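Backbone-to-sequence.
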């Protein structure tokens, strides 16, 4: 199977799933207007240094894009359940191409979610320079790399029945600890825990967009460490799955 043909098939299949598109894009938008609408005139939310609409725009972007990236795991689990993965293994399609298509599809959904939230943010007064939009978007996309590896890992460990609750609960916990719903305190246990989570640095992209301090060395170390560990676990889970009779 031609790699480009398979990737195109994955992208089109996702776009044609209307229920998935509506829920994936609509849910973060509804939450954004409900939460950010009440603080649209707040210029410094909880001492974060950013306005209420901007803070929650990036916060809900972290929620929506994390869910989009992890959704690749749900598709992998479903395909494993019906034996589609085994059928693909007897074709010339390489595992690298298979996973690349899944990650690209997840990134496509993440970008659509970002664009939808950006548009919603402008309606509540969010206004940034072109380079600030680009910096924020680039940093958010970098932050999603470890979540792609996590999605692949869960897709090979869980069944279609269990992966839904696992993804929903996992995204909710990471969003909470990362500061999606409220600014993380500058000290204390919650602050210390958040420093070691990729979801926290994803939300912090808003500070970079406003000309604040760039990611410290700790942020890059956290992102790289999570990516390396989760990628290694995902590769191990894949080898274990393919080794089954």
């Amino acid at each position: 199977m031609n790699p480009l043909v398979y990737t195109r098939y994955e992208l089109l299949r996702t776009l044609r799933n209307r229920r998935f598109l509506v829920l994936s894009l609509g849910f973060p938008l509804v939450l954004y207007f409900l939460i950010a609408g009440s603080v649209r005139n707040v210029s410094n939310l909880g001492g974060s240094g950013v306005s209420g609409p901007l803070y929650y725009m990036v916060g809900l972007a972290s929620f929506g894009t994390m869910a989009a990236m992890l959704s690749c795991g749900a598709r992998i689990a479903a395909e494993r359940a019906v034996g589609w993965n085994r059928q693909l293994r007897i074709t010339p399609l390489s595992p690298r191409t298979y996973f690349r298509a899944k990650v690209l599809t997840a990134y496509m959904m993440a970008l659509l979610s970002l664009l939808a939230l950006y548009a919603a943010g402008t309606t509540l007064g969010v206004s940034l320079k072109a380079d600030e939009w680009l910096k924020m978007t680039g940093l958010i996309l970098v932050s999603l790399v470890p979540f792609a590896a996590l999605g692949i890992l869960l897709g090979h460990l869980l069944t279609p029945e269990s992966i839904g609750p696992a993804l929903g609960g996992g995204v909710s916990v990471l969003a909470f600890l990362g500061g999606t719903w409220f600014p993380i305190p500058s000290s204390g246990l919650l602050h210390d825990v958040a420093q070691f989570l990729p979801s926290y640095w994803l939300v912090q992209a808003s500070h970079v967009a406003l000309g604040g301090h760039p990611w410290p060395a700790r942020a890059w170390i956290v992102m790289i460490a999570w990516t390396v560990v989760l990628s290694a676990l995902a590769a191990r889970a894949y080898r274990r799955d393919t080794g089954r009779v």
